[in-house]
Amino acid sequence: MPIENIPEIYFQKKDTPRDIFVYDFKMTSDVVKSKVNLSMNMFSFLQVGKKQVHFANTSMAVNSKQSLLLKKGNWLWTELLDTEAIYFCKLFFFSEKKLTEFLSKYTNDAKPYKEEVPYFVIENDDYIASFINSLSSDTFLNHSYSEALLVLKFEEIMLYLLNKYGNEFEYYLHSLISKEVSPFKNIVESNVHSNLKLEEIAFLCNMSLSTFKRHFTSEYNEAPGKWLQEKRLQKAKELLQAGELKASDIYLDIGYNNLSNFSIAFKNKFGISPTDL
């Protein structure tokens, strides 16, 4: 069964990455299962139907009386569990950047959950039902002030839920923020001096290549190809200066397919040929 990278599969080719994104999701099959890689935190506002979400160590069933806030980075299975012929929900995605800005603006330095909980269950009420009805991907795509409006909608639901659930929800929001050294950074930095390609490192991070590039740029403020080349060429220089290895001994280990490409890149970086060290 193929893996669906969400929300990337909902973007048009011409779309640029967004910090807040709404998608109207609809199915008409009786039972649908999908394997999902979630790259942004997401509200799932279920309107019609039922579903069960399976995580690594637990599962959660919800119906139209409940909504879920799902933590990014989880692989999960979803099932449509209903005798009705339709399943409809609103998906509301938000980046860690927007979450951090919101927490800095409205909350204290709360301690996150000690438990690694991949979801937060929201009991729907009249206010939340009204909020869900106000979300429409068509509206935000065609609105002149769509980005500003989406930020307001994001802050609206966050403030309402903070008021409704208090510290419990605030602590959960803080737990969504990456730790000082994220698993993503651990994977990247443990493969800096390997010969793995970007696609292979992205796979180890459980991300599509496009998601990996966007996340990398957000973490390191530089494109991954350029960043890795700089690190690997610097390592190559150190190895060559030690005097025990030649360029022909190391070019494959630091990600180059042939000696010529390595030599050109090395000279462009340091101004001398690797054979001159």
From TrEMBL:
Q: Name one Pfam family in it.
A: HTH_18
Q: Do the record's keywords include Transcription regulation?
A: yes
Matches recorded under SUPFAM superfamilies: Homeodomain-like
| The organism of origin for this protein | Flavobacterium gillisiae
InterPro entries, A to Z: ExsA-like_N (IPR054015), Homeodomain-like_sf (IPR009057), HTH_AraC (IPR018060)
Q: Name the chain's protein.
A: AraC-type DNA-binding protein
Q: Which UniProt keywords apply?
A: DNA-binding, Transcription, Transcription regulation
Q: Which domain of life is it from?
A: Bacteria
Report domain HTH araC/xylS-type positions: 182-277
State the Gene Ontology terms under molecular function. Answer: DNA-binding transcription factor activity; sequence-specific DNA binding
